[in-house]
Predict the 3D structure of the following.
Amino acid sequence: MHEVAIRPEIIERVVARRGRLHLYDRLEARRTALVVIDMQNAFVAPGAPIEVPGARAIVPAINRLAAELRRRGVPVIWVLHRNAPDGGDWERFFGCFVAPENRSRAARALAAGSELQRLWPELTVQASDVVVTKNRYSALIPGASSLADVLRAKGIDTLLIAGTKTNVCCECTARDAMMLDYQVVLLSDCTAALSDDEHRATLENVIQQFGDVMTADQALALLI
């Protein structure tokens, strides 16, 4: 887990701009969902092709939070990345950002049916949870996933975002959520990146422009 905090100068900037640090005084449980992004073997397992070692450290926090949210009637939604076995459904990524010698391994890891594409087994999933797949960083851009439809059907307007990487799929989903008029809370102790600097950069981006940043306990304290 990242032991980092938003820098004092960023906090001062936020407070000067809007008169307060945190956006929300309360969160309505009936309109809130926990969205856990990419906590799959491909990202979490030791030695996996797209490993984020820090993701293993946030598993207990996600499990604790999910259990309490279920108790309060808040849906838990697991978002899994899934691409075609050859990566052909996202050529702009696999063809440009992945070296040719690594493309096949990376794409196969995220293909349907791959053991690496499945959720990390230490995560606690219940039958009442929802599982959706995405094929882009953001789960909320058109055509990427069914997440928007799920949220609409459940009357959700507030997202608690957890998972990995903080600065890639979590941040992209948080940005799009805000621009689609969702209330966004990025959970600082339930997200993980490859480095403290990358993790902190997203916390600071989000709290300035795209949503709130809280720990799981802080978010729970606001739920009514």
Q: What stands out?
A: DSSP finds ten helices and six strands in the chain.
